[in-house]
Every structure is written in structure tokens, then in C-alpha cells.
Amino acid sequence: MAAAKIETDDGPCCPICLEHFNLPRQLPCAHSFCEKCLQSHITTQTANITKLSYIKCPVCRNPASPSIKDRPTSEWATLFPVNTVLQSILPAKSKVDRLCDACNTEGTTVPAEGFCVVCKEAMCGDCLKVHRKQKISKDHTILSVEELDCNPEHEQQRVRTLQISGKILI
């Protein structure tokens, strides 16, 4: 199977639109796509077909079923999980584009307000409060999302760190 790892100088891109990911959703085969691109693919694949319970990945053609099968196909893209690792390394466009990593692993999409440089995680306001109170993490350097937006070197360092550790699923 060919890998669909498309990257520009400033980060990974969606293999469908070839732009930076916008809310990357991950299929069971580990390929990720912008939520809107994935929904467009789902709409195209399910057109004129009733009772389809899966789609084929646009990259590897492996079947992928949404977690809740009785939902309308117009909602399927939102049923696939957000790729939190990929979301966290994307260049920050705005507060709304960056999600809290901790909340996201529990299936909740909450906008991030800050980023821990030590843990390399984006966090919402509630998670930041807890993080700052924990004995082990109270001295960690926290950047606001705005600071991260203004300093692309922080983003590039995160990309390099994650690439070296081999944790990127695109």
C-alpha cells in the first residue's frame, strides 16, 4: 500500500484538497483527510446507493465504516475521530482551528487556549488550570495559542520532534 504523506515546507496537507488539513478526520486505515473533503468523498461514494454501510478510503481503498451506522451519510465524516496528533502539529490559523488534545482524546472538541511546550499538547482553559496545579507540570512553559501563531519556529520544532519519534499518522 502506498503511503499518502503529503507535506509542504510548513506542514502536512490533505491528500484530497492538497491544502493544510482543516479538522483532520482519521479513517481506521490511519489515513487522514479534512472533515469537509472526507464528507465530500462520502457524498460522492454514497450517491445513488441506498443502505451503504461503509466507504472506501480515497488513498488505500480499504473499507471504513462510521462508528454509528444508523446516522445519515451527511453526518458520517463527523463520526470518524479527529487525528489529534496531526491536528496538534498543524500551523495554527486561529483559536477555533486548534483543539484541546486531552479533551479530544475523550471525543470532545474544545478549542485550545494554550500549548504546553514540555508536554507538547494543546489545552483548553479547564485543562490548562489543572495542568498548572499539578506538581509535575506546574513549572512547564505554557504558550497562548496567539503566541504559537506568531512564532512559526515553535510549530516547526514540534513537527521535527514528532517526526523523529515516528508518531505522525497522515
UniProtKB/TrEMBL annotation:
Organism: Sinanodonta woodiana
PANTHER family the record matches: BONUS, ISOFORM C-RELATED (PTHR25462), TRANSCRIPTION INTERMEDIARY FACTOR 1-BETA (PTHR25462:SF229)
Record keyword Transferase present: no
RING-type domain segment(s): 14-61
Tree of life domain: Eukaryota
UniProt keyword annotations, A-Z: Metal-binding, Zinc, Zinc-finger
The protein's name in its UniProt record: Uncharacterized protein
Listed InterPro entries: TRIM45/56/19-like (IPR047153), Znf-RING_euk (IPR027370), Znf_B-box (IPR000315), Znf_RING (IPR001841), Znf_RING/FYVE/PHD (IPR013083), Znf_RING_CS (IPR017907)
GO MF term list: zinc ion binding
Membrane-traversing stretches: none
Residues annotated as domain B box-type: 95-145
Family matches, as Pfam families: zf-B_box, zf-RING_UBOX
Keyword Metal-binding: yes
